[in-house]
Amino acid sequence: MSDAKSHEAEIIQRIGELVNEERDLREQYEHRLTPQERERVSGLERALDQCWDLLRQRRAREEFGESPDEARVRPAPEVEDYRQ
Predict the structure, then answer these.
(1) Number of C-alpha atoms within 13 angstroms, CB side, residue 57?
(2) Tens of pLDDT along 18-59?
(3) For the chain, is the Cβ count within 10 Å smaller at the N or the C terminus?
(4) From CA 54, how far away is CA 59, in angstroms rounded?
(5) pTM of the predicted protein model
(6) String of b and e for 42-53 (b: at least 16 CB within 10 Å)?
(7) Going by C-beta distance under 8 Å and a sequence separation of 6 or more, which residues neighbour residue 54?
(8) How far apart are CA 8 and CA 42, in angstroms?
C-alpha cells in the first residue's frame, strides 16, 4: 500500500472509531447524557468534521497532482458543521 493510501486508511479508520463512539453516546439519550457525555459528543462532532475535511483535502490534492501529505488539519471553527 502506498504511503498516501496508508495515511488515507488511517483517517478512514479514525472516522469509523469516532462515528462508533458518537453513536454509542447518542444511543444513551434515552437515559439522559451527563454534561461530560454531552461535551464528549460535541468534541466528537468537531473531530469528525476535521477528519472529513482532511480526507477531502488529501483526495483533492492527489487528484490535482499535488502531494496529499501537504494537507493539514484545519481548526475546528473553520470546518464545523461540515456536511457529507
Answers:
(1) 17
(2) 999 999 888 876 678 888 988 998 999 999 999 999 999 999
(3) C
(4) 9
(5) 0.81
(6) eebbbbbbbbbb
(7) 11, 71, 72, 73, 74
(8) 24
Q: How far is CA 13 from CA 25, 54, 64, in A?
A: 19, 13, 24
Three cell numbers at 64?
A: 490535482
Instruction: Mention every residue, 6+ apart, whose C-beta is less than 8 A from residue 45.
Output: 22
For cell 498516501, name the residue. 4
CA separation for the pair 69, 14 (Å, rounded): 17
Within the chain, what is the greatest distance between any pair of CA atoms?
Answer: 49
Q: What is the rounded CA–CA span in Å between residue 34 and residue 74?
A: 29
